[in-house]
Automatic annotation (TrEMBL):
Protein name: NmrA-like domain-containing protein
Gene3D superfamilies: NAD(P)-binding Rossmann-like Domain, UDP-galactose 4-epimerase, domain 1
Organism: Dendrobium nobile (Orchid)
Residue span, NmrA-like domain: 5-62, 63-260
Pfam families reported for this sequence: NmrA
Cited SUPFAM superfamilies: NAD(P)-binding Rossmann-fold domains
Length: 265
């Protein structure tokens, strides 16, 4: 461990992304601290196991809670309600950080590759890869960014010591992680040797699903609409306050979408 490695505090450490952040921080040699709620450890056996795992690897556990920031650029996001109002809270937190002069780095990780869409080859309602047909929102030609969770964590922890990211927004846009839905399906067809019937869902029908569809699917459709139809994961980077992770850290060997798809064969 380098003597001058800074201490890293992971907020939401037992959540989906938090575990990857803790792993990356430890792997890159940082003294690592994890914020957890005492009630979480007492009431959730699975997360209690995660916390015990942290302790066994030398993570310092701190029992407090603060909000976190990941995903789309919430200050420039075109997404439907009620997601917009929920994410507006994050935008207000950003603004307060700036007003109070708190040193910070905001990471816009776009869409988590293995969380939802890549295992379904970009579909919303499917339970896995297509077998005969594949549903596409819109025309399927909108660029979207899908970054592996471990890579998002690595880029984030590397930024913790980097003065180039201070008070900046760091966007994750490795070239091999930028793709359209049609291109993703092309790759999958090449890997499987199959051709799939491509069914396009017009944007108005997508909006109707968001407004009137099953409650448990509306959130996924909102995110898919913002990413795969509106292209909100690949908005222009304003260099006055924005930097791009793969340009800052070309030494990071990230997993491309082409490589990640192999794991679903």
């Amino acid at each position: 461990m380098a003597a001058d490695s800074s201490r890293v505090l992971v907020i939401g450490s037992t959540g989906y992304f938090g575990k990857f952040m803790v792993d990356a921080s430890l792997r890159l040699g940082h003294p690592t601290f994890a914020l957890v709620r005492e009630s979480t450890q007492a009431s959730d056996p699975e997360k209690a196991k995660v916390i015990e795992s942290f302790k066994s690897r030398g993570v310092n556990i701190i029992y407090r809670y603060f909000p976190s920031e990941f995903g789309f650029d919430v200050e420039r996001l075109d997404i439907m309600e009620p997601a917009k109002s929920i994410l507006d809270v994050k935008a207000r937190v950003r603004q307060r950080l700036r007003e109070e002069g708190v040193p910070h780095t905001i990471v816009c990780g776009a869409l988590a590759a293995n969380w939802y869409f890549l295992p379904r080859i970009g579909q919303v309602e499917a339970s896995g890869p297509p077998t005969d047909k594949v549903c596409i929102l819109g025309d399927g030609n909108t660029k979207v960014v899908l970054v592996r969770e471990e890579d998002t964590a690595t880029y984030t922890i590397k930024a913790a010591d980097d003065p180039r990211t201070l008070n900046k927004i760091m966007y994750l846009r490795p070239p091999g992680c930028v793709i359209t839905h049609n291109e993703m399906i092309d790759l999958w067809e090449k890997k499987t040797g199959k051709k799939f019937d491509r069914i396009h869902i017009p944007e108005q029908e997508v909006i109707k699903k968001i407004q009137e569809g099953p409650v448990d699917m509306r959130g996924s459709y909102m995110i898919a609409h913002a990413g795969f139809v509106k292209g909100q994961s690949i908005i222009d980077i304003d260099t006055s306050f924005g930097v791009e992770a793969s340009e800052l850290y070309p030494e990071v060997k990230y997993a491309s979408i082409d490589e990640l798809l192999d794991s679903y064969l």
